[in-house]
Design a protein that fits this description.
Distance between the termini of chain A: 24 Å
CATH superfamily of chain A: Histidine kinase-like ATPase, C-terminal domain
Largest sheet of chain A: 5 strands, antiparallel
CATH superfamily of chain B: STAS domain
Order of helices and strands of chain B: EEHEHEHE
Number of domains of chain B: 1
Oligomer: heterodimer
Radius of gyration of chain A: 15 Å
Chain lengths: 141, 96
């Protein structure tokens, strides 16, 4: 699957629908959906929110891999920002010290089985993989 | 599809997908809630960090008035997200 999406949160519903179709067509285990949906949303929202210098669409690519799926998001005309090295979130902090900031990318790093960031010519490409846990069933989430 | 509203017991019921596109609507609704508030999320299928942010900001606002959010009927998927994000330690959660 290879498709572009406008830089708008309203595109999330279409991304979810397209992901569902891709999973069904490729017979990818549906237990991976929550992780893939969450990582996809967090990365897409991050691109839309922080790259306001362009109107270019964001490219989504998905392909089946052994036991799971590989997903890439590509953003154009963008400054380098590597989401794989973001600051950790203290999830044990008390309520008074908790803020929503940073939680999205933190969850992506928790959910993905692998994640890779590439940057060249003002183009960012982030690729993550989710695969079934050994034994046949995906871990919780 | 995301829905939010009150049930006959005065609890706030959330259903569907609470993502970044729907978070402003959820926030606007919960901004109108005061005192202690019970959230029935049995039918909530999905929540992202945007939705978690709505719950966190509402909880903090209500806690400032010695109240807060109580979450009931938390399904396994949503419960896992709460655990990953540490929200299971911040909220009173019943019915996981």
């Amino acid at each position: 699957m290879r498709k572009t999406y406008r830089r708008n949160f309203d595109q999330l519903a279409e991304i979810v629908a397209d992901t569902g179709h891709f999973f069904a067509e490729q017979h990818i285990d549906d237990s991976l959906r929550m992780k893939v949906d969450l990582s996809l949303e967090e990365l897409f929202v991050n691109m839309v929110t922080y790259n306001t210098e362009t109107d270019r669409d964001i490219l989504l690519e998905m392909r089946p891999i052994e036991g799971g799926v590989e997903v890439s998001l590509t953003d154009y005309d963008v400054e380098r920002f590597d989401p794989t090295i973001v600051k950790d979130v203290d999830v044990d902090a008390p309520l008074a010290e908790r803020t929503p900031g940073g939680l999205g990318l933190y969850l992506v790093l928790k959910m993905a089985d692998s994640i890779n960031y590439e940057y060249s010519n003002r183009t960012s490409r982030i690729t993550f993989r989710n695969i079934m846990a050994t034994g046949g069933a995906a871990e919780d989430v | 599809m995301f829905e939010i509203g009150f049930n006959e017991r005065g609890e706030v019921v959330l259903s569907g997908r609470l993502d970044a596109a729907q978070a402003p609507r959820a926030q606007a609704f919960l901004d109108g809630v005061s005192g202690g508030c019970v959230l029935d999320i049995a039918a909530l299928e999905y929540i992202s960090s945007a939705g978690l942010g709505v719950l966190l900001s509402t909880h903090k606002r209500l806690m400032a008035g010695q109240a807060g959010l109580e979450l009931i009927n938390v399904n396994r998927h949503i419960g896992d997200i709460f655990r990953y994000s540490g929200f299971d330690k911040l909220f009173v959660i019943r019915g996981v």
